[in-house]
Write a structure and sequence with these properties.
heterodimer; A: mainly beta; 7-stranded mixed beta sheet; 11 strands; B: 116 residues; 4-stranded antiparallel beta sheet
Amino acid sequence: IQMTQSPSLLSASVGDRVTLSCKAGQNINNYLAWYQQKLGEAPKLLIYNANSLQTGIPSRFSGSGSGTDYTLTISSLQPEDVATYFCQQYNSWTTFGAGTKLELK
Amino acid sequence: EVQLVESGGGLVQPGRSLKLSCAASGFTFSDYYMAWVRQAPTKGLEWVASISYDGGSTYYRDSVKGRFTISRDNAKSSLYLQMDSLRSEDTATYYCTTDKAHFDYWGQGVMVTVSS
């Protein structure tokens, strides 16, 4: 299943509400995860099953969506949120999106 | 604290073999499916292989089927990836992960470079 993330690059200011998009090539029944990868580090799981927050992840991160369209929202951007964000579907085997790079404006 | 520590990476010529290891601690290893996920330089993430709790079932992406073998030793809390007939397109950082379909915990990764 093809996963398309948009935008590929996003510039935002500290305190902004940020929305990242992930679109699946077919219905993935909410089997969708989001990961954060900071430069030089391993990915970290943020959200699973489309909207479940992984233990230890700040509540400013949230996930939503259904069917083919999913969103990761950061309610108030912090400097430490600069990273690349990947979505992953696990409805049929598993595939990742190409990522959205989030930078500070 | 969950820890996954990979080892065994390096530079290898095309067609040769390499075996990666992952030492797990901080959780009951035998309670988890495990997986390898890789990331080519400046590229995205790609699932490689997964293994069931007792090693009885294994799963591979098509491009590595017949060349890579995932295995585990629950007594040693260790995961392995035997990589044979390596190709330049296998060049990547390889991550050991817990596998609940989504990947909860990740190691720091180990670099594999396939080049002559």
